[in-house]
């Protein structure tokens, strides 16, 4: 069982970086079919293809699908060679639609759930959930059973606590599980171990931008990046700009005051330290948090060696 858990975490980490950063995409980050035939190490993934009502997110279709998924292309002025670069104006809460989009052409996708290493439950909310009952996918998971619950994975493109997530996402086991209890219930009543919806969600793997302490099988994954979805030529230009950037500051600090009282206090303390240091550049995003700020963030980060982002 330990080996299975380790394999699951490895597969999930692979998928998270694969989707968030577009790793190993030789021709286009928008066409995973361009990859070579999947190796034995590439996980086989079954996608439930749930109705769109289980996704509280924009429908990305048609000619503008790429812009809808990854954000529009944006030219960022650098004030130095090569003058400007192209990035994606990606929203911070779009990992759900990025996963959903990339799995359409993922070369390791399978139609038979029995062959799958992982089963992707494509139900998520990008904004604060309006109707958690309507988003609850449990009734649609026809391939879910007690022996493969751990292979199922969901993503919440936001943080996994407070109003950002539905309660069922962080469901806890109804009772402690043990080898004896599992064997005992299987012997006398095959379905008794898995009657609880909470137990089902508790056994699934969950991904979110930030995970609360004590969550069950919940893993923090990276935010989407402004190079997600770039074509090779745009990516080469970006990499050249990054490697040749004139980084005149040790640290760039970019944020606005928000969050808990402790978070705001931490941000203000760090801002004060940055303001009196010649090695730090501070960019205040107060009053601009509803904007993407991609242009400001990218150009500022390329001026420094490190980027400071407080909790």
Describe the fold and architecture.
The chain is α/β, with parallel strands linked by helices and 311 residues long. It has two domains: 2-220, no CATH class; 247-308. Helices cover 29% and strands 16% of the residues. A five-stranded parallel sheet has the order 1-5-7-8-9, sandwiched between helices. The chain is globular and about 60 Å long.
The geometry reads as: globular
| Number of helical stretches of at least 4 residues | 9
**Which residues sit in consecutive blocks of at least 5 with pLDDT less than 50?**
1-14, 16-36, 175-195
Total count of strands: 12
Q: What is the gyration radius calculated from CA atoms?
A: 22 Å
Features:
globular, 5-stranded parallel β-sheet, 12 strands, 311 residues, alpha/beta, 3-stranded parallel β-sheet
Quick structural overview:
By secondary structure, this protein is of the alpha/beta class.
Give the arrangement of secondary structure elements.
Elements: H1 2-21, E1 45-47, E2 55-56, H2 65-70, E3 73-77, E4 84-88, H3 95-102, E5 118-120, E6 124-125, H4 132-135, E7 152-156, H5 179-188, H6 197-203, E8 205-208, E9 218-220, H7 232-243, E10 249-255, H8 261-275, E11 280-284, H9 294-301, E12 304-308
Parallel strand pairs: 1-5, 2-6, 5-7, 7-8, 8-9, 10-11, 10-12
Antiparallel strand pairs: 3-4
